[in-house]
Amino acid sequence: MAKKSMNELINQINSALDGVIETSPLNTNLEESMQYSLNAGGKRIRPLLVFLTLDVLNQDYKKGKKTALALEMIHTYSLIHDDLPAMDNDDYRRGKLTNHKVYGEWKAILAGDALLTKAFEIIADDELLESDVKVKILSRLAHNSGHLGMVGGQTLDMQSEDKPVDLDTLEQIHKAKTGALLQFAVLSAADIAKVDKSTSQALEDFSNHMGLMFQIKDDLLDVYGDESKLGKKVGSDIENHKSTYVSLLGKDGAEDKLNFHKDAAIKSIEQLSSHYDIKPLLDIVELFYTRDH
């Protein structure tokens, strides 16, 4: 089977997300609010990473479709909640009004809650995966998105505002807040492919370095990025008094860290090169490294 390009895969993700929320007989517009944020654009990095990892592991990427959609729902719910006045208080996301600016705060909260729970339903109902694989993926998703993963990282991030934060704490925040869902993307594909322990460890190391790469690049773009490409104003981290790789290390130091984790991610995935065609994952390393939004 010919490999799909990243753009083809992203188009398939967008098409699958469009209309994935069925209409409720309760006669509310909650589904409209959920779909609004799902359709707000974005890089679709997390579901793309599920597909590309499956490709590398010689699996049909379609086996990961429901998992990839569920992951994007979890990510989207987290963005809706992050944008609320109680947290980042953002008016725009990806160049569009944030969910609470369109639908109000209480409905934005409920839309996020509904996307979170819908994600688990989608995986549980996946007819392409064996029951034991679904249980493993559901457990991993709950762990990586919950208080030991993304939500825990966001909590530590909020608690660290207006306080001096050292580099170790900053990395702890971002391994959980940003890295946990990226790790899930890679390791859920490993679960589907039922890889051996050494392959799983190499993929885990790869995903951990990718998570830090992604966040360091975000920190750099928040200060030096192009607003028209980012879809939001730059400098929000400074306004919110958040410690970042740039504030702690300066631009050059942050770029050095970015290069370190890029090299480490490549080294991790190269361990698999004797058994697998790793080019799709090398390509996404380059995408993380060079992205401008």
Automatic annotation (TrEMBL):
Keyword Ribonucleoprotein in record: no
Keyword Magnesium part of the UniProt annotation: yes
Catalyzed chemical reaction(s): isopentenyl diphosphate + (2E)-geranyl diphosphate = (2E,6E)-farnesyl diphosphate + diphosphate
UniProt protein name: Farnesyl diphosphate synthase
EC number annotated for this UniProt entry: 2.5.1.10
Annotated PROSITE patterns: POLYPRENYL_SYNTHASE_1, POLYPRENYL_SYNTHASE_2
A molecular function (GO) term: (2E,6E)-farnesyl diphosphate synthase activity
Organism expressing this protein natively: Staphylococcus haemolyticus
Listed GO biological process terms: terpenoid biosynthetic process
Family: Belongs to the FPP/GGPP synthase family.
GO cellular component, one term: cytoplasm
Top class in the EC scheme: transferase
InterPro entries in the record: Isoprenoid_synthase_dom_sf, Polyprenyl_synt, Polyprenyl_synt_CS, Prenyl_diphosphate_synthase
NCBIfam families: FPPsyn
Keywords assigned by UniProt, alphabetized: Isoprene biosynthesis, Magnesium, Metal-binding, Transferase
Names of required cofactors: Mg(2+)
